[in-house]
């Protein structure tokens, strides 16, 4: 009986990677945490980058551009304005441009309603300059674009832990839950040119970048920054990070003010990436059984061999789809109710400040921040939303024997695990907070359980399950095994 070759999923396409520095001023508005007592940052931990990837089928065809930003999030209005300017600047059709956020909670806060806060004077100038900086990264990616082989590999990293912690006093806390489900998969794509030279590494991992929290006053990319540094120092090639579905995942060691913890977390992931890189075969090859060699034992010998013509053809597949799903929205509190709550907590903060009570002031500021975000969610529903219905977009790109799924919001990790379970022989990479910033997306049975993510979600029960089915159906239609 013949022994089948061991195949490593690959893609052959035109690929280029470019980067631009998008680090804000060191005293930019930095209040990303309700418990924070500061507003403006006090320095820079590591620089922030925009990393652009330009993709095109071999021999020409429509270009697709993926831009990964070392930023936390933006309101819908700011994202839409950025996308509109970017599309005009780099001349990419809307369905072929994906903007995704690394979701660091230690970057500049970009809410234009906060411009009067300390450090807020930098928000508008930063947003005005951002399209040009991103365009610089895209131009570099285009200049670097050439025939490339992407080789996909999977590794493991224990950095991420479930963060739906049942609290002994009742309800749930958003913190490490050792007994909860968590996906430790690290997927990478190694980009090599026709001569076998390494030209870039894409890293896909699901873990909230929440190492640095309210006590931290430094602008930082959190753990992805240290991960990139490890990979780039070892390989000499640029590394791009894509955040996977992690609505219920965060670092086991997080919510701290010490940047060294973010460094340590990043090194964990970086070393896991290097392990995968070292395990990959030469581009354009698979492992083939060549027979026996008689030695002290009878040895079975495998060798790297060129891929078959059929596999080469499969590796050159390049397709794209944009899905628009009609998802159910949740009942949200009224603006009047939230504005009344905001006024109440603002009065409590003033009273705590006058009384010299730092804990009461911290709590009041946290509730103020929660309420302001709840007000923002009323504005976050995308254009075209009706009572009870929200149009939700998903972008899917088939890249040879792999696929990229980009989608808005913060889905629970179940999305990633279930799609990959249904397509075990297809590397499926994910990019969240893509083009649409709004909403956590929870499994139906977790709605109404008092979790933080449920409180912050605008999409109703059944949305995650609908999303899983839609992605599965598209990948199945493409023949992804």
Describe the protein's architecture and organization.
There is one protein chain. The protein is of the alpha/beta class and 481 residues long. Among the domains are: 10-281, no CATH class; 335-380. It is built from ten helices and 22 strands. An eight-stranded mixed β-sheet has the order 5-4-3-1-6-10-11-13, sandwiched between helices. The two termini are 24 Å apart.
Chain-wise SSE layout:
Blueprint: E1 10-21, E2 43-44, E3 49-56, E4 64-69, H1 76-90, E5 97-101, H2 123-144, E6 146-156, E7 160-162, E8 164-166, E9 172-174, E10 185-192, E11 198-205, E12 218-219, H3 223-235, E13 239-243, E14 249-251, H4 259-279, E15 285-294, E16 298-306, H5 309-315, E17 318-328, H6 335-355, H7 358-380, E18 389-399, E19 402-407, E20 410-411, H8 414-422, E21 428-431, E22 440-441, H9 452-456, H10 463-477
Parallel strand pairs: 2-12, 4-5, 11-13, 19-21, 20-22
Antiparallel strand pairs: 1-3, 1-6, 3-4, 6-10, 7-14, 8-9, 10-11, 15-16, 17-18, 18-19
